[in-house]
Amino acid sequence: MEKNRELARIFDRIADFLEFKGDSIYRINAYRKAARVIKDLPGNIEELYHQNRLRSIPGIGEKIASKIQQYFEEGSIKKYEELRREIPEELMILLEVPNLGPKTLRLAYEALGVRNLEDLKKVVRDGTLATLPGMGPKKVEKIRKGLEIFLRGQERMLLGEAIQIGEKVLGHLAPLISRISLAGSLRRMKETVGDLDILATGEKGKIVQAFVGMPWVTEVLAKGDTKASILMEDRQVDLRVVDEGEWGSALQYFTGSKEHNVHLREIAKERGLKINEYGVFSTKTGERLAGATEEEVYAILDLAYIPPELREDRGEIEAAQGGRLPDLVNHDQIKGDLHVHSNWSDGTADLEELAREGARLGYQYLAITDHSKAMKIAHGLDEKRLEEQIKAIREINTRKVGCHLLAGIEVDIHPDGSLDLDEAVLKELDWVVASVHSHFTQDATERIIAACHSPWVHCIGHPTGRIIFSRDPYPLDLDQVLETAAATGTALEINAHQDRLDLSDLHARKAKEMGVKLALGTDSHHLGQLWMIRLGVGVARRAWLEPSDVLNTYPLEELLALTRKKR
Ligand SMILES: [Zn+2]
Ligand SMILES: [Zn+2]
Predict the structure, then answer these.
(1) What is the 437 CA–ligand 2 centroid distance (Å)?
(2) Rounded CA gap, 558 and 458, in Å?
(3) Which ligand has the nearest atom to the CA of 340?
């Protein structure tokens, strides 16, 4: 399906170029439509091409079909290559800047040499944009605002940040409101979130007023009778207030994803139904048949209720049709955190504080996994200090000051695949996480596989090493790692820290399919980070994991029995 996406992107880009050139709207729309059709195509376009069936796709005319043919025969589309030579491609993204428009963009390109986002920012800032013909101060100001919104929209935020902002708003408005919920990608627990969407029912005017009047609001971007947009903590938050009877259809609609909703619409259509944010309607009579609850919306399509985290059109609709939806793991089932640092290495809390906090969170156990000696800057533990820490942990456990502490370590995996600590001490530990913390440019596959083969290693920490928005994964053949993990009974971590979320949803789903167990750990260095286990649960749910796939759902004795098994 890789080719479907690639072709859709090319046709969209051609449409952009033509729009920029002021070409006919019909031609532009034909390319846009082709892009959409190909993107939503259930089958593989390459196969259709080989079977000579391109023209059988609704919305693909002769001209577009011949371009697709060219793509598969010659590896590129001539028209697209010509346009790319003529106009800088990075200019095209600026067509999305609100209030700018293709005509002005073209003028800015020809008269001021604006070729990319940086250039546009510059001519807006230094005022040269105002020198273009037909450019009054009002228009420049509108474009400046548009650019601001565009730049904000470019930025996505971490799931953890988004949740904290969203819940602040929910907490503030909840007392006024009969129903309120997060929507959009935040409700689906995607690892990064664009704008924050909130949906509510109740007295519209009063709710909108309370929303724009919240103490954290720095700017009101828009305010109407039923909706408003504000800035808080530099982020845009959108609120919509809907009628009670439309709650379910609106929540379903605004939760998305787009792909999931497109698929639902197709199913509705087949049944003579129309589905939108206001409800589910009979196409024939226009009668409204459902919409008060999400359950009702799914039920009328003969689907079981699909949890928001699954709504990505990755097989969940078929599973809901066949009664095969997974029984997803949930937060209440989590009995402990399997990756926590204390002040013995680079954390701030001491062992007793952690045990107490674990108990307060309702945990049975919490694994202390400080760094090993290779992490000098983190005061990593050598064998001697680790022995002392094990003693301290056992002593705290006998006093029962809080939840049970597992004596653990986050041991470095050296570049040659050996572990940073002697077997003699690793053997005494309840829980051993092994992680890569150095030589990030080298392929880490052999290194991690070697660690999986060690009888002392229970889990590979943050297996791909990526840090969202700042570091790409190290080179890694994940399939090989998964195979070895499955064969050796080594768990892989879903590091629940908001910066990591590693493994990701798709990788964790693959791990499950290959029979690998997953372990959630917050990698907390402060007490105030333990809450992030929820983010890990979000990833686990997006990965279709059930309680038995996640070690943290096991009671202490069962977990210990399982870890002893590997040895
Ligand atoms: Zn680490
Ligand atoms: Zn760590």
Answers:
(1) 10
(2) 14
(3) 2
- Candidates 202, 170, 174; CA nearest to 183 is 170
Q: How far apart are CA 226 and CA 504, in angstroms?
A: 37
465 burial via Cβ count (<10 Å: 0-12, 13-18, 19+): buried
Determine the Cα–Cα distance for residues 433 and 566; give it in Å rounded to an integer. Answer: 13
User: For the chain, how many structural domains are there in total?
Assistant: 5
Of 55, 49, 53, 68, the residue nearest 8 (C-alpha): 68
Confirm whether 549 is domain-assigned. yes
Single residue among 154, 175, 207 that ends a domain in this structure: 154
* Whether residue 489 sits in one domain with residue 387: yes
Contact indicator for 327, 371 with CB cutoff of 8 Å: no
- Quote the ligand 1 centre to 378 CA distance (angstroms): 10
72 and 43 in a common domain:
yes
Same domain, 396 and 537: yes
User: What separation in Å is there between the alpha carbon of 329 and the centre of ligand 2?
Assistant: 24
pLDDT tens, N- to C-terminus, the chain (567 residues) = 678 888 998 998 899 899 888 899 889 988 988 998 887 777 889 999 999 999 888 888 899 999 999 999 998 999 999 999 988 888 888 888 878 888 899 999 999 999 999 899 999 988 899 999 888 888 888 899 888 877 866 778 899 999 999 999 999 998 888 899 999 999 999 999 988 999 999 999 999 999 999 999 988 988 999 999 998 987 889 999 999 999 999 999 999 999 999 999 999 999 999 999 999 999 999 999 999 999 999 999 999 999 999 999 999 999 999 999 999 999 999 999 999 999 999 999 999 999 999 999 999 999 999 999 999 888 999 999 999 999 999 999 999 999 999 999 999 999 999 999 999 999 999 999 999 999 998 999 999 999 999 999 999 999 999 988 778 899 999 999 999 999 999 999 999 999 999 999 999 999 999 999 999 999 999 999 999 999 999 999 999 999 999 999 999 999 999 999 988
Cα of 465 from ligand 1 centre, angstroms: 8
Note residues around ion ligand 1 (Cβ under 5 angstroms).
Answer: 435
**What spacing in Å lies between the alpha carbon of 437 and ligand 1's midpoint?**
6
Tell me the residue range of the domain where 215 lies.
157-242
User: What is the whole-number distance in angstroms between the Cα of residue 484 and the centre of ligand 2?
Assistant: 22
- Evaluate whether residue 326 is within a structural domain: no
> Do 291 and 427 reside in the same domain of the chain?
no
Between the CA of 419 and the centroid of ligand 1 the distance, in Å, is 14
Q: If 0-12 CB within 10 Å is exposed, 13-18 middle and 19+ buried, where does residue 156 land?
A: middle
Question: Which CATH number does the domain housing residue 126 bear?
Answer: 1.10.150.20
Q: Is the alpha carbon torsion for 102, 105, 111, 116 positive or negative? A: negative
Domain C-terminal end among 87, 116, 145: 87
Q: Which residues surround ligand 2, an ion (CB under 5 A)?
A: 410, 523
Model pTM score: 0.76
Residues 452, 541 within the same domain? yes
